[in-house]
Design brief:
single chain; 75 residues; alpha+beta; 3-stranded antiparallel sheet; 1 helix; 3 strands
């Protein structure tokens, strides 16, 4: 599975979910990115680009985002 990271500057400035539990922000190679778990897809390893870094230290924030996605009540 792959969860996209969207460049923060590509999103409208007033996007309310940016920085939320569902859409945490990270910095990768000096670029601010936002996790988008709603766009998670299965991807063959060969289709992924070059490995440029790791978010292993942010594992809890990523797990929290996925937990929010899978358990949140929309009622």
């Amino acid at each position: 599975m792959a969860v996209p990271l969207v460049i923060r500057s590509a999103l409208p400035g007033d996007t309310p979910s940016v920085g939320s539990r569902m859409n945490p922000m990270f910095e990768v190679e000096g670029i601010r990115v936002v996790l988008h778990p709603l766009d998670m897809v299965s991807v063959a390893l060969e289709q992924l680009g070059e490995h440029i870094g790791s978010l292993a230290e942010q594992g809890q924030a990523i797990a929290d985002a996925l937990d929010e996605l899978l358990t949140r009540s929309w009622a």
